[in-house]
Amino acid sequence: MIFFNTDYFFALDILKKEPDFIPSPDSLKDWLQQPPNSPIKVKPEIYDAYFRSQVNPIFLNKIFVSSPNASIKLWIEFINGIVTPFQPSFTEDSYHPLWQQAIYNPIKLGCKDGTYNRNSSYNTSTKQLRPDFSFLVSNVCLFRGEEKAPNNAENPANELTSKLIWTYGECPYIFGYYAVGFMVTFCYLRRNRNSVERIDIKTCNLERLDGRIEAFIIGRNIGRLLPLLRKTVPDSLQEFTIIHRNNGKIVELLQSVVIKRYKSAELVRHIMDLYDKMKLHHIPFIDSLDKVKIEEQSVPFVILSPKGIIYKPQSEKQLVIALHCVLTAVKAFHELNIMHRDIRWENVIRYIDKDRWFIIDFDEACNSPSSISYTQLDRRSHAPEIFSGSHNKSVDIWSIGYLILQTSVKSESLIGYAEKDLMIKDSEKRPKAKEVLKWLCDRYKDILQEEFLISKY
Which pTM does this prediction carry? Predict the structure, then answer.
């Protein structure tokens, strides 16, 4: 048993070895088709039965070699599907096991810490928001696929780019594939100015043994490269991630939008009323409600955009910009008698592509004042009066002070103002949002003018 495990882990270490560098796009096609440094050992009886007479020996011997010391465990987990593939019928679903064997398993061999999602939504409004297949490394989709049955006239290659918004910063490229039945084309995707460009690498025929071996080689090399690519993407980026809240709400982070599913249609209607009111008055620096779906016998949901990233300001300049964005929004919806009641950095989100912040998650928002205490919120991060009964818009002012204290920015001016004015225990003595915004604009006029957030004249 010790010998068995040693051979397995030795072979696994070779196959999943991370490369030393990210290949350039010009060299990528050749790099991805490189066989392992050492051929994979296969039991002689298996080698003779499945490989010897079916594959060109010049091609075969670079990848597999007959050896009595081969690991059966490695064969079962990663290679058996190459020689004994699932046989599909004519539906797209029937091809899933084959695509899983030929595409996912090699990727997983090269990148053991990755996770995958398959888009099982039959709802037209949500299905088009995510790829058919996504492979995530630390919550970022670096490999995606679009799949169709042979009798489907739609073009999956076009869907690879039409569903993709580039949110990967300086990452040189990500990977994808499009499959029509047995024919699978691997490609890479990269930003080209304001669009996404698809460059095909290799088409593999999964109906043939040599085609499945080619897919294995490419998939394993893609998997090995994904952890390196992940390091080029901002840590704060999350996509195709599902979060389950304690109150039963399910939040799904997609590429550019967020889907929220609720237990109560009443809560969805409440949110819809608030967003409609704010949209009518053009409230800036908040997310927007793109779609609402409330139907009997189905889970109500909303789709919101844009999707940003959780990112606390790292400098005084960034904090001033973030506070200006927040206060501009708060001043505007306070004038509509709306209070948010849950302003914190988890709900003050940075745009993906610029140093601007916006407020999300109006689930707890209501008209001001309110006589109902809200005990479900965290006492450490919310104004004390919100838990004891009557409260008004000043709870948001307290929360803005708390925002300032929850960053690593050591600004005596901002911290002092937060502690002495914004978070004062007597809520009646807290300044109004428009007064706080004026204080910020007067104190940090140069920064805000430089960022074109206030006029120079």
Answer: 0.83
